[in-house]
Amino acid sequence: MPSLFRRRPSLALRLLLATLAAVLLLFLDQRGPRLLPLRSALLTVLHPMQQAIDLPFRAWAWGTDNLRERAALRAQTAALREQNLRLHLQVQTLDALQAENRRLRALLDSLAHTQQPLRALIAGTVKVGLDPYIGQIQIDKGSLQGVFIGQPVLDADGVVGQVLHVAAQTSQVLLITDSRHAIPVKSVRSGVRAIAVGRGPIGALDLPYLPNHVDIEVGDALVTSGLDDVFPPDLPVATVSSVNRVGEGEFAEVQATPRGRVDRIQEVLLVWPAAQPAPAEPGPAPAAPAP
């Protein structure tokens, strides 16, 4: 009666036989090309198995690289956005500085057109009055910088007003468009002299008490006459905008537009007249000639 259980070789014996078979195959493979067809057939058969075994490792490597690249891209995008914001802020700051430099250069260049040298100080606007009927601004220079009441105030285009009140570090400037302000002017073309008075919230100037036959026309440039001993002569003030010669009236209605940009003042010039030379002190009396 045949046995129900067959005895199989032990595990050690099978390992030994597999090792001997592997060594024999390696020896034969090195000795000649007889096993090349067998090796090719085995590689062809085992290739799908190798791909299946390697698939989880390749999927893990791909997922890890993808997550690493996505994290690096997120960090790079955040850094670029922050850099872009900083660059935008720098560009805005640079534009503001360039605009300020242009205004300051125009302020300084405006003094080159005056006939007499003037000492000037640049001041910035601190506060602008909100009441349209009161034309005043506050600047950041005061008595500590030598500012005095009545001092002329200019911008790059012309006269804008004069100092009304002075504190230690600040001053109040009365604009020429204020109805309380008046300034002596003259026409560059004809030499006609007049008084330019502010019209308040309208932002224009009146030239009252000019006779109908006065030699003044629209477009005439008005400059300071210097007759008030406050404003130096020949500073730009306004341009005549309208001339209405009333037929039956005694005086013409003349209006002018200020040259200075009184509605958008940011920096101004405080000017001092040129210093007059000091009188020479009398020297010692010459000795009398000997008899």
Outline the structure in words.
The chain contains two helices and 13 strands. With about 290 residues, it is α+β, with helices and mostly antiparallel strands. The protein has two domains: about 15-115; about 120-270, Thrombin, subunit H (Beta Barrel), CATH 2.40.10.340. The strands form two sheets. A six-stranded antiparallel beta barrel has the order 1-2-5-4-3-13. It is rod-shaped, with a radius of gyration of 48 Å.
At the fold tier of CATH, the topology name of the largest domain is Thrombin, subunit H
What is the end-to-end distance? 183 Å
CATH class of the largest domain: Mainly Beta
Estimate percent helicity: 25-40%
Major β-sheet profile: 6 strands, antiparallel, barrel
Approximately what portion of the residues adopt beta-strand conformation?
25-35%
Q: What is the overall silhouette?
A: rod-shaped
Spatial strand sequence of the major β-sheet = 1-2-5-4-3-13
Tell me the number of helical segments per DSSP (H or I, 4 or more residues long). 2
